[in-house]
Amino acid sequence: MLIALLRKLFITFLKIGGFTIGGGYVMLPLIGKEVVDKEGWVTEEEFIDLIALAQAAPGIMAVNASLVVGYKVAGFGGALMAALGASLPSFVIILVIAKFFWYLRNIGVIAAFMTGASAVVVALLIYAAYSLATKMDREIKSFYLGLAAFALSLFFNLSPIILIILGGVVGYLIYYQKQREGQAS
Amino acid sequence: MIFWQIFWTFFKIGAFSFGGGYGMIPLITQELVEQHGWVTMEQLVDMVAISQMTPGPIAINIATFAGYQTAGFAGSLVATIGIIAPSAMIVIIGVSYFLKHHEHPKVQAVLKGIRPVVIALIAYSGLMIAQGVIDGWVPAMMILMALVASHYYKLHPMIVLGAGGGIGILFYLFL
């Protein structure tokens, strides 16, 4: 019974991992479709909570989502099988590409293709920052925080890890402590 | 020990990246390109482009790619396990706790502070990569066109990348 469930989890997430191109935000709706609509493993409401957790935790959103859903459905083993299923297809595909890519990279057509694609990568990064920024609360504090992080990377080359920790500490101080003081007075 | 180094490096990347695949790129640049020199900036950009055109989570793709590049098959395995390990621990140990508390004001305040930093870091790494990529008016125009295609036409990154590659072939091979 449990084995069958674990196998089902593995295959479901294997499909999701193998057929979605574009990472986390593309995968989440598909995971919802499979585990809520098709399998009925979790309710719509539970799924929204699980996804909130997957997004709040650090790391890979799609893997986090498979971990929490797998755990909810079948405990520790379920989390393991779901995460394995979600990661395995990309692992295998990239392994094959990695094996041959650098030999092929110098061939004229592929070199020209990759040069063109590199320009698009720049645009994708800038656009990702832009669309994340538009989804945020429009607060002047957040704007200054982002500006400060940008300046610190530009002028002092501070490590992203340090900046993220600083951001968390500043967020705690200005949003949580303020709120508590506000409640106290 | 190279494998321990790979594991620890990707563990750190997994533990401190927020905001999906793109949120990892600043950390990956810092750790893999600047700190260890395991991959060059150019290779990293290649990896991001390929990851966007192949299925699965982008971060798994990049970890597999970079791990393989550094230490072969075992390297790719160690890197992938390393990048998943921190969130696996957080999510599994904390799943019942977090499900009740992820809307806790403390957690929310910390995440609210982290969000703008992540956005700034993504924009910053975009500019870093742009420095290496823009060597004339062709890539500059292509970046603009790709921004328009993403914003106004909502085209999937895979399609924009494919089109960019096609234009690349046209310009660099035939003109």
- Rg of chain A from C-alpha positions? 21 Å
Which bin fits the share of residues in helices of chain B? Answer: over 70%
Computed structural class of chain A: mainly alpha
* Overall pLDDT score of chain A: 85
User: H/E order of the elements of chain B?
Assistant: HHHHHHH
Main beta sheet of chain B: strand number and arrangement? none
Tell me the overall shape of chain A: flat
Low-pLDDT residue spans of chain B: none
Helical proportion of chain A? over 70%
Largest interface: A-B, 97 and 105 residues
Oligomer: heterodimer
Shape of chain B: globular
Mean pLDDT of chain B comes to 86
Distance between the termini of chain B: 48 Å
Order of helical and strand elements of chain A: HHHHHHH
- Counting DSSP E segments of at least 2 residues, the number of strands of chain A comes to 0
Strand content of chain A: under 5%
State the helix count of chain A.
7
Number of strands of chain B: 0
Give start-end ranges of low-pLDDT stretches of chain A: none
Strand content of chain B: under 5%
Short summary of the structure?
With 185 residues, chain A is mainly alpha-helical.
Which structural traits does this protein have?
heterodimer, A: 86% helix, flat, B: 175 residues, mainly alpha, 7 helices, 86% helix
Notes on the protein architecture:
The complex is a heterodimer of chains A (185) and B (175). Helix content of chain A is 86%, strand content 0%. With 185 residues, chain A is an all-alpha fold. Chain A is flat, with a radius of gyration of 21 Å. The model of chain A has no long low-confidence stretch (mean pLDDT 85). Chain B has 175 residues and is mostly helical. Chain B has helices spanning 2-16, 20-35, 41-53, 58-101, 105-133, 137-151, 157-174. In chain B, helix 1 runs antiparallel to helix 2 and helix 6 packs antiparallel against helix 7. Chains A and B meet through helix 1, helix 2, helix 3, helix 4 and helix 5 of A and helix 1, helix 2, helix 3, helix 4 and helix 5 of B.
